[in-house]
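I keep forgetting this: the sequence line spells out the residues, with the fold written below as integer tokens. I include a record here:
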Amino acid sequence: MTDLHIIGGGLAGSEAAWQAAKAGLTVTLHEMRPVRKTDAHQTDGIAELVCSNSFRSDDAKRNAVGLLHEEMRRCGSIIMAAAARAQVPAGGALAVDRDIFSGEVTRRLQEHPNITIERGEVAGLPPSDWRSVIVATGPLTSPSLSEAILTLTGEDALSFFDAIAPIVHKDSIDFSKAWFQSRYDKGDGKDYINCPMTKAQYEAFLAELETGEKTAFKEWEGTPYFEGCLPIEVMAERGPETLRYGPMKPVGLTHPSGEKPYAVVQLRQDNKLGTLYNMVGFQTKLKYGEQVRIFRTIPGLENAEFARLGGLHRNTFINSPRLLDPVLRLKADPRLRFAGQVTGVEGYVESAAIGLLAGRFAAAEHHGAGIVPPPATTALGALLGHITGGAEAESFQPMNVNFGLFPPLDGRVKKADRKEAYTGRALADLNAWLEAVKAAA
């Protein structure tokens, strides 16, 4: 008899299966390929990397994703172990040979006595006799399962995110130029950060948008543009005043000096900690390097540090802050957990990390042990907290791990020392958490 069914053999599903099997559960991992193919995958391998071969920075002292790597290693991650076997030179990044990586994950899962890999699509909701299920189907969740989730949750639609705007670390904004104010002082009167532009600055900005290098859509993604989330450069093509009557309108705003700006870029708080702000209406298909270059011409953002850059592409994810409980269970049907990119995390490592937690939570629940989530001060805990309540449900969009998701540091820490303070605190708290979990098992 299977203790846990996992739907989806990507990075999240693979990690969830490994963690649960190590904890003694019998696991069936359901992967629809090659019975049913997708537009993105090229092989039938488990944990196939369909985009980049990079897991990004491996610096555990000064980088949030590098910290996540280290936390996962300490949790016995199969994904990090396979990455070590498949590693290729990439400077300070962790990059892998795709075929070796997928082959290593597949081999380890096939050889584990508690894991069975079953090929074929799980159409619709899992059977009622599957008492514990993790859905880790990623952005290409099958239509039948998507429709079943909609019906179960009462949502009008799964969140199709066709546009995202850049997100900026608040502490990198120059407040000698920017200021807090809501348009017409609505709400609390200071709900937005405003970056003013003169006419000359605005016209120069439009010119940069027009000539900036843009990323083309991949055929499999489709190219739908919705009027409510047009790329900023498409709006600019409609005429020089379009942005001034749209996301960059200056009406209802006055600089503390008393001057009326010609145009304004607004940033809105993106997380409950108030450490991250998104650029309102700045969804874009500018290439990443161009975004950094062009958006740093905006007064107040000359030294902006970006937690996430913008883009447009097809993606499907659930509104996790609304639909999931703190241990990744679907509130409408707690036998179902969700993991991976479908929960609204971005990136290979982030997806695998949520799979790691889902597998551990399912195992703890099966054994009757209390489920203890990782501290919010860790990368694992920060990601979990963001998708299960830290983000605003009404504006929820996928996010990579970054220090803006972490609780502020205690006391005054020099800016140059901040990242190492975050990582040092995180690893100390992770070790304590692992000891507590071990003691409770």
Q: What stands out?
A: The radius of gyration is 22 Å. Residues 219-226 have pLDDT under 50 and may be disordered. The CA atoms of residues 39 and 220 lie 6 Å apart.
